[in-house]
User: Fold these one by one.
Assistant:
Number 1:
Amino acid sequence: MKPQFEKPFTQQEPVSEETIARVGDILRSGRLHRYNTMPGEASEAALLEKEYAAYQGAEYCLACSSGGYALSVALRAAGLKPGDQVLANAYTLAPVPGAIHNAGGVPVFIEIDEDWHIDLNDLRSKAEATQARFLMLSHMRGHIADMGAIVALCEEFDITLVEDCAHTMGAHWNGVKSGNFGRVAAFSAQTYKHINSGEGGLLTTNDAQIAARAIIMSGSYMLYGSHGAAPDESVFASVKLTTPNYSGRMDNVRAALLRDQLPGLDENVRRWKLRYQALETVMINAPNVDVSERSQNEDYVGSSFQFRPCLQPSMIPDLVANCGARGVDIKWFGAAEPQAFTSRYDSWRYLGEPDALPQTLEVLSRTCDIRVPLTFEESDCRFVAEIIVSEVDALVETSL
């Protein structure tokens, strides 16, 4: 009997007793809606906005219903019009093209390189060819591309950069926090992200006009003055009658959950990185596993781990099955059909026939992914890596 890994890959750390008590107080009050406050009282959602803006180093913050909603409203608030093309890296998850589509945009997918970053040459080529005014850059699975080069390219072509930071909350590039490079950024608080309210999103920006439009779009009615990190009244005066309400607010229960976790976020980033490095130490020395080295400019959050087994893509389903039988849950981005959360750009058929992206398909054909929950210890991560390496080696042996 081969050694088995027994811990689940989807178990999160528990909510603190203090937060449970605070949520209980909110439930007993019956005032779950963010605008249901007493005179002089700030809601939990408003307090979260103030605190997250301070954490991020941004002027403005909006707490909303999901990360996907934050992405969609970010585009709309930044001026996207129906039919506008939006450049986007092809390695991402389904909510990203969904957000572009929901906002009325048309995705133009960009190739990725061997290290899962947006390909800068293809980005330049398609920026020139399309004259697109927007780039939605997903820091997919926590991999941050050369942000200096991307910002320079956006400035050259007058492209509005929207950052999808669902996987990089708390990460940095050259000492600058992810989300602070573009005009607007979106973060997720879905269960498997870095702070957890089950579902939820945050939008940050230093642009007062974008912030005001996003707040009204979220469903503030004329109660925008009660937001915790909002522009002055004068900014709202210029947009309040010409901006639609899309109703995507965050409620006070979820805001209370996130407020409790925010002070510990940087410590959790440190803990994730240690677990990532425990996996990396085993896999990077394995002859039949390819692991990309992270840039020295990148201070990443290691909440997931990606690797490429030295196998033919046709053998990777066997690897997934064999590791699964030993308790190790691997996701594969090369499957032609979507599997659970994992899908490929050419499976989003509602967008029409996809352009050929051979480089991306080649990279994804061998891209494997595992979650790294904080309920794992570093020793657990080493054990998981040893199981993966042993199963890769066994399949390589059978293929000789």
Number 2:
Amino acid sequence: MRFSFALTLYRLLLPLLFVAAFPGWMVKMLRRGGFGTRLGERAGIFTTALEYEPCGAVHFHAVSVGESLLALKLIREWLMEEPGRRFVLATGTATGHAVARAADIPGLRVTYSPLDFRWMVRRYLNRFEPAQIVLIEAEVWPHLLLECQRRKTPVRLVNARMSPRSARRFTRCAGLLRPLYSLLDFVAIQEPEDAGIWEMLGICPQNIHPTGSVKFDPGSGARPSRNPEFQVMLDCYGKNRPVVLAASTHAGEAAWIAAAIRDANPDILAVIAPRHAERRMEVKAELEAAGFAVSLRSTFTEPAASADRPQVFVIDSTGELRTWTAHADGVIIGKSFLATGGQNPGEAILAGKPVIFGPHMENFQPLAQRLVTTGGAICARDPSELSQAILTSINPQQAEAMTRHATKVLARHDGATRRILALLRA
């Protein structure tokens, strides 16, 4: 009864929420280049002829760029086992869509996931008739699950994570959410400690599988490696110059981190990669106001020497962060100083780079705590601590010890991709 009431309320509020969010969503799509990418597919409006669609394929649903990259990793590994299998990757953002298309995987149909209106979901399912739907990390939508249950289409949630904040919120609402989450065929969770909360949400214990995280599993793919073109750009600032990369920074963090890098050692080149590339001009203005000379990756020209203005290189591109990480001597994780949640430290560790983050890594606990406890990462709480941590990260002996300890922490996730694929293929 409570779920029926909640579902009715959801159906009444969904159009209102859509109308309220629509203007901001349109602006975001404009900034991120969403128009001209078959954006109508979000509303169940398709332009591809039906006879060319991959009917009966495995569908991955990934909202963000990060989730799209995880889905691509699973698809590539699956194709190594079954080269002829067809896949559909449905994304929720224009940047995720662009990354998926840029992967250029033969036979992969990239589309947008439908908005959770019943008629849009039905058009999507009628068109593709998925063999199964694989949700990445956290995206569970009522109408999608209910319609898949009616059609007996399996829905699996993989790489599921539960931050402490989410766990508290889900615990309070467990009675309302249980009928919905119980529709999942199984959940592959990153941490075995989270099994209890998933049981509370209605998943049978035998359908909860601790697999580790795909994010932190090197799999059979190549680790991040350097790009000669990128190295040429960095050499313009001085050959053999130490590079510290601030990855996925959020509002206000670019100048804050760049100042800490300058204070640690003016010879270190600060490379800033904002979380959203469309913020490039905002980030550039922020850095210039703080006294830095700024070059953008998108319009790169050899920077002019400046005696009084330290140089900062801003990576305002999408899908390149993994490669830029390979060029860094140390990596600072964004959204962990002046925002909450943090970003993924896994790529930097897999690339063999020492990692520094701030006090706000809520979305990556307990991993962040394990890294700090074992000496695999440094948590810096203020600019002074950050400057000291930066000096540690570019010291070869200390950096080697950090990366060795961090690699041991990630070892528990080794094979996560293979374990998830075994569940999906079964």
Number 3:
Amino acid sequence: MTTIKRVFNLTCAALLAGAFAVSLSLPVRAADSDMIVRVKNIAHVQGVTGNQLVGYGVVVGLNQTGDSTSVIFTSQTIQNILQSFGLSVSQQEVRTRDVAAVMVTATLPPFAHSGDNVDVVVSAMGDATSLQGGTLILTELRAANNLVYATAQGPISVGGFVAGNNGSSIYQNFTGAGRIPNGAVIARNMDTPLDSSPNGFNYVLTTPDYRTAADLASTLNARFGRGTATPLDGETVHVSLPANYSGQTVQFLADASDLPVREDELAKVVMNERTGTVVFGGDIKLAPCAIAQGNLSITISTNNQVVQPNAFARGQTALQSNSTITAQQKGKQLTFVAGATTLNSVVRALNALGVSPRDLISIVQALRKAGSLQADLEIM
């Protein structure tokens, strides 16, 4: 009896150890598809956003990699700049490859004040081959209302290089555009709607979802009192400041920013056909289906041969081109894919097909069309 009991205990211990090992190998998943996040990570105040600026400028100090003389607007710009310094030259006298016309862009952050610095992006708009080593001269940056909000100037960092000689060259990254860290100085303050609405505001969700909006309103009402927040739609939640926060919008936002909120995961697949990238979101389900994927490859090869004329005939040596075209279709047999209810099982099911990422893009589109993939598709 003691021996049987000991064997039974050892068997139970082995089963528990095996179950524990299996539980470690599987991903930990909550009872539902919700994630606990902070308010400031999923929502922002409506109207509190950056403003885009743009300007036209000139980059100098290039090593013969600037715009050619065929770029008329660059020559005109150089002529205007020299005239502002009291030098009179004609457009025909401007012969330099050390200058490039560029577009300068920047984004002003919310609540920006005069004297603050922001980064700018400089992009060539002519036929300049590289902005490496160049310096942007003083450029005005304007908003959509045509008012000057900042000025930019400074050396450009391109994050790459171009080197070559006698027709041979080597390129590292793209050098036709670069950045100037803290290259723009803000000239005027940014007015925001938050300053003019002390009694209330709207929260805007980064990813619109009705359930997340309702949970955000419930969380704010539980913390600050009933009637504080009202969901208007799947993206907007209106907040009426409580009496003890009257005129203290900033303090309310600080207290509410770290509150935990349940965010519902979206079933979405994002695909980039240019790079062959496929990203699966959470809460994706796959119904049973059968897949057969075939590839058609066409190869064209050309063999050039020199044909000599007959020694006793008058003729010339000619070049003869022989082209060979081969078409081959490779395909796998019909593959059955069982239903999958978790992201981990969906990945395993699709990996079992053994296809490349680019083939997977077409398969995912076909699965969505057939109704087997229960998720939204977003093609970039």
